Amino acid sequence: MGRGADEMFPFLEDLFAGLFRVADDIKETTAKAGITALNSLSNITVRICDAEFTDPAQVSKVLHVLLPLLFQKGMVSPVPEIKKFSVILVNKIMKVARACLRPHIAEAIDVLLQSLSSLESAELCVFTLFFPQAPTPL
Asked: How many degrees, rounded to 5, is the angle at CA 41 between CA 75 and CA 92?
């Protein structure tokens, strides 16, 4: 039998923050282990955030702690693996949390749009600087 959301809640923020640091380690094997642990923790977190199986009050409580951490540390991380992990986790949470996301929607949209711009290639950025307006066909 697994642990409930109440038992895990006090440790979620510290677990994610610590595993972000482990995944950012200079040693490749340590960083891989950190990403593996983050993936396991994300599976548990998605189940906790599923409003169909968990009390919506608990889901809201978890989202209140977890989403700011993912938005402010995970999705803006200089480590591509952490950034990718955070975007995928936010996507999974948004699919299952439903109405509990309402207080976080504005921030989520802002951060997700910013993360899209960071995925643009350097060539596209240079192109848009030199050719701000494409010529219109005749």
From this structure: 55
**Cα radius of gyration rounded to whole Å, the chain:** 18
Residue in 115, 91, 94, 118 with CA at minimum distance from that of residue 104? 94
pTM over 0.85: no
Query: Contact 116/69 with Cβ under 8 angstroms?
Result: no
pLDDT per position as a tens digit, 79-128: 888 988 998 999 999 999 988 889 988 888 888 888 776 666 666 667 67
Mind giving me the DSSP string for 42-72? HHHHHHHT-TTTS-HHHHHHHHHHHHHHIII
Q: What residues does each domain of the chain span? A: 5-130
Q: Which of 23, 115, 5 has the alpha carbon at shortest distance from 60?
A: 5
Whether the Cβ atoms of residue 3 and residue 54 lie closer than 8 Å to each other:
no
